[in-house]
Design brief:
This protein is of the alpha/beta class and 412 residues long. The protein has eleven helices and 15 strands. Helix content is 30%, strand content 25%. Strand 5 and strand 6 form a beta hairpin. The longest helix has 19 residues. It is elongated.
């Protein structure tokens, strides 16, 4: 007998995506509705593939709901599956446990949320399967939950469900319900349906240990195709675990090499095909792009201008109304006349600027970078500002200021 089921996690339904208001050109409503549309696509995928059941490994919600609308939408989507005879088994993750009213909403018959006090086992004898798992009781679960899980049941395909950081330390995901790969392997289960890590990862294929990633990317640090894992069980063993894309809006980091560009028009001509390729890869979805400009150019002054993002956004809008420029990063090297070699006052000024950038006095910038960084972090959602952003490094701030000043001086 061949059985198929879907493994999803980290839906974060109606995630507020704070910080979009900082850019009036951002398609905020399109992005905010994406988690609902992705969940709808997951349900349609389950019906189209005629799966036996759906597993949700935590973080259905995104903390407290502003109203019951979020829960009502989820319940209605799950009812589509249960009416069609599809079972749904879920565990609560840290964001679900944070929600104060999650437990007060009655969910449809056929949807089973596993207990938070101890691991539970759901036997599906008609399918020859057993599903083991435990929900989070509270937001911050620091203990190793898996130590209380039962051993594999004989004569069954055993599936474990767990919301966990596994062995990951640091990074954007809190260290919740930590355990090791070796611990999971020791239980004799055939498949571990994990959640919490938002990037898809097949940790092991013997046994299968899988993070499906989140259902819908929510910001630029969650780029690329997002979705669920379609698992095939044949003759009593797991034979395949394949990614299925269900995201409705996509985030992408792209780079354009502007080496040798002598004019702004030439630079924009390099940008356009990169945007076209990213748009094609998105497959008709809405797309947010962070553009990195790279290479050697004499246009450093132009690149540092505040209007550059808007000009690239104009190129994007001419390609498609679904394309938005989330940000522009300058990773170029300056090609400029050697002002420092001049013997006049301009050369002396250039040499002084270069010296200050190389060996700045301790109080040259004061606390300006940290103040600006603090204000940015107040307006942006967690994880959007990467750790390698220039504002984290005063030396990069000075280097960019140096390049801009010298380019302007060279332009006269």
């Amino acid at each position: 007998m061949t059985i198929r089921f879907l493994h999803a996690a980290d839906i974060h339904l109606d995630s507020p995506l704070r910080g979009l208001e900082a850019d009036p050109g951002a398609p905020a409503e399109l992005i905010r509705g994406a988690t609902r549309r992705a969940l709808g696509k997951l349900v349609q995928l389950a019906l189209a593939e005629d799966v036996a059941f759906l597993l949700i490994a935590g973080d259905i919600y995104d903390g407290d709901w502003p109203d019951y609308g979020t829960g009502l939408f989820f319940a209605a989507q799950m009812a589509q599956l249960t009416r069609a005879g599809k079972k749904v088994i879920a565990v609560r993750g840290n964001h679900d446990a944070q929600n104060r009213i999650t437990r007060s909403l009655r969910l449809p018959e056929g949807l089973r949320v596993l207990d938070h006090r101890r691991p539970e086992t759901v036997e599906l004898p008609e399918l020859g399967l057993a599903v083991h798992g435990q929900s989070f009781a509270e937001q911050a679960v620091s203990e190793n939950l898996v130590r209380g899980y039962p051993r594999a049941l004989a004569g069954r395909v055993n599936i474990g469900m767990l919301h966990t950081c596994l062995e990951q330390v640091g990074g954007p995901h809190p260290r919740y319900a930590p355990c090791t790969r070796a611990e999971l392997e020791s239980f004799g289960y055939d498949y571990w349906a994990l959640g919490h890590i938002h990037a898809r990862e097949v940790v092991s294929t013997n046994p299968w240990i899988v993070f499906p990633g989140n259902l819908q990317g929510r910001h630029i640090n969650e780029p690329g195709p997002k979705g669920a894992t379609l698992v095939t069980v044949s003759e009593g063993r797991v034979v395949a675990a394949e990614h299925r894309t269900v995201d409705d809006f996509r985030w992408s980091r792209v780079a354009a090499d502007v080496t040798g560009c002598a004019t702004e028009e030439a630079l924009l001509a390099r940008v356009q095909p990169v945007l076209e390729a990213a748009l094609d890869a998105a497959g008709g979805r809405g797309l947010a792009v962070r553009m990195s400009l790279e290479g050697s150019t004499a246009l450093q002054g132009v690149l540092a201008a505040a209007a550059l993002k808007e000009k690239i956004l104009n190129e994007a809008r001419q390609l498609s109304p679904l394309l938005w420029i989330e940000g522009v990063e300058l990773n170029t090297r300056q090609v400029r006349p050697p002002l420092e070699d001049r013997c006049d006052s301009l050369g002396a000024l250039a040499r002084r600027i270069e010296a200050l950038a190389q060996t700045p006095p301790d109080d040259l910038l004061g606390n300006w970078p940290s103040q600006l960084l603090e204000k940015l972090l107040e307006r942006l959602p967690p994880g959007v500002l990467p750790p390698d952003h220039p504002l984290h490094d005063p030396a990069q701030v000075l280097a960019r200021a140096r390049d801009l000043l010298l380019a302007r001086l060279a332009e006269g």
